Amino acid sequence: MGTAPQIAPEIHDFYTENYDEATRLTATADGALELVRTQEILRRYLPSSPATVLDVGGGPGVHAQWLSADGHKVRLIDPVPRHIDQASAVGVAAEIGDARQLVAETGSYDVVLLLGPLYHLLEREDRDRALAEARRVARPGGLVAAAAIGRYASLYEHVATTLLGTDRVREAVGDILRTGRHEPGRKGFTAAYFHTAEGLEQEMTDAGLQGVAVHGIEGPAWACLKATERHTGEPLAGSPMFAAALESARLAEPYPALLASSSHMLATAVAP
């Protein structure tokens, strides 16, 4: 590991100067909901500890920490130096790396996670390379799991936060709904790709992964939770409303028609 990544300057600057990914899953109720649900879903599929886990694009190590606490042997790679520093500071084995060109040996990990890379690879060719590399370094029968931002997340998000209150916001949301792309240079977020459930499943299947299943993470109530917290100023993690949103996510999960209501999706599969 340690290969120099070709990360877009906009994405590097966003996570280095404008946004602290280390607090995203703990600072808000909808972030906490994403974390709890990601843990729930992954723990169904993870092998018994100690499994070897490659956390590709693992950011500042939020997931690596709980995986390590569960007894797994985790190695993290990420293209953003700030994330490597943050992960290392909390005891995670972390190195600079690129999801599209892993240096790990073929078949060397029990689990390969891509809980961030697919967000910021706008071109299908790059996402295909990342998934092919994940399949390559996973042992036969190993778990490959990839997260994606849902195609409709920006619509729910901006109703909850900005009330779709400007032409700029409405135009950006409309473009994402049509194309799945938040183009470089647009304000509010960095360059990103927003998947449909069908598109995520197809990309995993086309990579040669087997038994692909796509799960809705936050379920249908996350935007209500976010809006209430945002506009009342009251933290809602651990509240009755949080508990209801969590239960709604669990109830909605078996129904494919409700996948589109989640902010994020998690696809699980088996390496051949």
Provide structural commentary.
With 272 residues, this protein is an alpha/beta fold. It is 42% helix and 20% strand. It is built from ten helices and nine strands. The protein has helices at residues 9-18, 29-45, 62-69, 81-89, 124-137, 153-161, 167-179, 197-206, 222-232, 240-252, and strands at 52-56, 73-78, 93-96, 109-114, 138-150, 181-182, 192-195, 210-216, 264-270. Strands 1, 2, 3, 4, 5, 6, 7, 8 and 9 form a nine-stranded mixed β-sheet that branches. Strand 1, helix 3 and strand 2 form a beta-alpha-beta unit. Helix 2 (29-45) crosses helix 10. The longest helix has 17 residues, at 29-45. The relative contact order is 0.16. The model has no long low-confidence stretch (mean pLDDT 96).
Give the end-to-end Cα distance, rounded to a whole number of Å. 23 Å
The poorly predicted ranges are none
Give the count of helical stretches. Answer: 10
Give the topology string: H per helix, E per strand. Answer: HHEHEHEEHEHHEEHEHHE
Number of strands: 9
Strand content: 15-25%
Structural class: alpha/beta
Major sheet: size, sense and barrel closure? Answer: 9 strands, mixed
- Please compute the radius of gyration using only Cα atoms: 18 Å
Summarize model confidence as the mean pLDDT: 96
Helical proportion, percent range? 40-55%
Shape designation: globular
